[in-house]
Amino acid sequence: MTALNSKINLLDASVFNRIAAGEVVESPYSVVKELVENSIDAGATEITIKIKGGGIDLVAVEDNGFGISKEDLPKAFLPHATSKIKSLDDLNAIGSLGFRGEALPSIASVAEVTMVSRQKNDKLGHCVVYKNGKLTAQNEIGANVGTSVSVKNLFENIPARKKFLKKPSSETSRITDLVKKLIKANPTIAFNYIVDEAVIYRTDGKGADSAIYAIYGEKSEEFVAISSVTPVITLKGYISLPSFSKHNRKEQTLIINNRVVENEELSYSVFLAYKDFLLPRKFPAYILYLNIPYDLIDVNVHPNKMLVKFVDSKPVKKMIYNTIHSALAAASRNIFMINDNESIFESNLFEQTEKFVPVQTELQKAKPYNDLGYSANIIDSDVEFLREENISQAISRQEVMDSFSADIHNLHMDEGRSMPAPTDKEHSQIYRIDTSPPPATIIGKLFNTYLIIQHNDEVLFIDQHAAHERILYDKYIAAIDNKTVAIQDLLIPHIFSVHHDESEYLNQNIDTIKPLGFHIESFGKNTFRLSAVPSVCERIKLEEFITELLSDTQRKIKKSDFLKEKIAQLACKAAIKGGDDLSNSDIESLLSQMQAHQGVFLCPHGRPIIVKFSKTQIEKWFKRIV
């Protein structure tokens, strides 16, 4: 083995630029991101992005921004050269997208780069050409106002790096996902995205609705608009209805202060908000625009500037969860509408018929919460981290309700949750079982599973199992929230032993488990005693329960995770089954419970409970109405 030389060497620019490139330029995706962000920072209102061969052969970005002067053009390719910051203080409130001063020299060190730029008052543009980090040409040239950058043959001079790139189609797919996010984040910029000479996206820069339609087409009707505002934080955006779910998270976009970012805590808040509305392993689509003072976030976490950290993330998580959950709860009563101009054999039973239904949860006179100005819970959440105890700054539920403006002050109270009262237009689309004349009529049953109910000029199909399952599930969750869980003492306490790490895990979480009705206490070294369970869980298999409880000792127990899943399973087992032959009195009892329940019309696993058809729709099937 050769001994290391103890002499300290100063690295040549060609070396440290390539090292920096390893952090900043991982793939063609990174090149597109850096160049487009520079265009946005330059005030561009039009940006064209062209790629060939997955961006390996060519990435070209052209904008109509401010441009770069002749004197500054070569400086742009020097290490740590940037127009975005001047001093250390600027790092505490970064408002631009690109600010490190590493992107261009890093890209130029691993590719052939040509930059042409012209400022408004210049008659001609200026051009510089770099190859593998060296300036090879510099001259004046005719050009439009703005800047264009062409990057060819990425990693051609570093075969070891190039061989780790994915095939061109995979690199193209990744860049396309990025461009979609950039379009969503900058809806007032007109984008033109071209792949191998084919136009993929062309937007007009006329706002979010237009940008989303350019990406999703008619599927944009599957999104609901949301909005929530405090004195310090603003949240707006679009969330997909449960009917528009995906098998992955590709269609999830978080935008903070106009920057596309990633944050696991906020993503998890969205997941929890959707948990009652989606089937397992399904993911929603969303575009969230969050504006927050620059000094309350840190975007200087990773060289690619995709990750952000918050001074205090709790109020932001609460705002996201409460706003989305409220919107979904309101929209869930509209999901089962049938579009009257469709055939029953062609219609999607879960298609939303209105485009961008706004659901407002604004706090016009919100009182500050912590340093970020967010008020206490709008909705009493089932999620542990959204029900922080002993927060001195938190205000009462009544104070929050009083702070709503006059047009949304009339709130419905559903099982401890509040939501804005629907407008007259929304009332026409919301179904609630109504006992006032004329009463609902039980028509019959289909396959001993679906109840058929006539109410006014509508017929409803109700899944008896899903309806009862939801009622049982919400009843237990409400009991947890209200701290009124019925406890069943075990005739013989269950004694069990665990490993050391499992023992520590249980001791750390006993205070969380006990309010849920599971009385577990230490019973000697690495031994515990389970002496009581919730009444709803009296038939639970204790060994199986303990095994699942200890299945992941790396995470803190939350009601929203393991125990909530367990409750859903128990509710499923205890509920009326599909195929059970219910009597008329049984059906009436179930309908009465549904009316009193007034909850979400989806079972705990995300399946629909009610599908509704109008008399008009049915008459169109039989051509009585043309």
Structure commentary:
With 626 residues, this protein is of the alpha+beta class. The chain has 3 domains: 13-206, Heat Shock Protein 90; 209-427, 2-Layer Sandwich (Ribosomal Protein S5, domain 2), CATH 3.30.230; 431-626, formyl-coa transferase, domain 3, CATH 3.30.1540.20. It is 29% helix and 23% strand. The chain is built from 16 helices and 25 strands. The protein has an 8-stranded mixed beta sheet, with helices on one face. β17 (411-414) and β18 form a beta hairpin. α7 (264-274) runs parallel beside α8 and α11 crosses α15. It is globular. It starts with 12 loop residues before the first helix and ends in a 5-residue tail after the last helix. Residues 83-88, 90-96 and 335-437 have low confidence and may be disordered.
Give a brief rundown of this model.
The chain has 626 residues and is an alpha+beta fold. Helix content is 29%, strand content 23%.
How would the blueprint of this fold be written?
Layout: H1 13-24, H2 28-41, E1 46-52, E2 58-63, H3 103-108, E3 112-118, E4 125-131, E5 134-141, E6 146-152, H4 159-162, H5 168-185, E7 190-195, E8 198-202, H6 208-216, E9 223-229, E10 234-240, E11 252-256, E12 259-261, H7 264-274, E13 286-291, E14 297-298, E15 309-310, H8 314-331, E16 357-360, H9 397-403, E17 411-414, E18 417-420, H10 424-427, E19 441-446, E20 450-455, E21 458-463, H11 464-481, E22 487-497, H12 500-513, E23 519-522, E24 527-534, H13 542-549, H14 559-574, H15 584-597, E25 610-614, H16 615-621
Parallel strand pairs: 1-7, 9-16, 11-13
Antiparallel strand pairs: 1-2, 2-6, 3-4, 3-6, 4-5, 7-8, 9-10, 10-13, 11-12, 14-15, 17-18, 19-20, 20-21, 21-25, 22-24, 23-24
